[in-house]
Structure formats: C-alpha cells, structure tokens
Design goal:
Elements lengths: L1 H6 L4 H23 L6 H28 L4 H24 L8
Helix pairs in contact: 2-4, 3-4
C-alpha cells in the first residue's frame, strides 16, 4: 500500500506541469531572441501573468516557511532559488510581449 501511494502520488499536473511551464518560458525566450512571433501576443501576456503569480506565491510561501516553520528551511531556500531563477525569464517575457515589439 505504501509503495503504491509513493509511486502514484500526484497526477498529471504535479508531474508534468513544471516541465510544460519551463518549456513555454524557454519557447518565449527563444522567440524573443530570434525576433519571431510564436502564437499570439495575448498568449504570451497570459504566460507572463502566470509566471509572475508563480514567483510571487513562491516568495510568500518561502517567507512564511522561514519565519514560522524552521524544519522546512531547505524547501524555503529552494523556493527562493526558483523565484530568483525565474525573474530574468519574467523580464524577457515582458520585453517579448510588449506592445512596442516590432514583431506584433
């Protein structure tokens, strides 16, 4: 029973959603560097919004863990690292989906 729970824990979202999100971010950065329009501008605005919410929520959770749950300091540090790594991607996505970009 324990083996089954550990093997089948989570679902599609918990296993593959981080990979899909980082794939989308990578595609947006690639399109920005190549100055190409991939998908529509509204799609990239939505991705920008989602990444911004992810960064903000990971920062809030990490601060909470640092202040109130001392047994989860490594997890909180990982969340801060994740947020720090996503900020440059967020800035690049903002530059890519801005109205003044010539590709739109």
């Amino acid at each position: 029973m324990v083996e089954r729970i550990s093997i089948e824990s989570g679902g599609f979202a918990s296993r593959y959603l981080p990979l899909i999100i980082f794939g989308l971010i990578s595609l947006g950065i690639y399109a920005s560097l190549k100055n190409r329009a991939i998908f529509k501008r509204q799609f990239w605005l939505f991705v920008y919004l989602i990444v911004g919410i992810l960064i903000l929520s990971s920062l809030v959770i990490a601060i909470y863990l640092f202040l109130f749950v001392s047994s989860k300091l490594a997890f909180a540090g990982g969340l801060l690292l994740l947020a720090g790594l996503l900020v440059p991607a967020l800035l690049k996505l903002r530059q890519y989906c801005s109205k003044s970009a010539s590709i739109w």
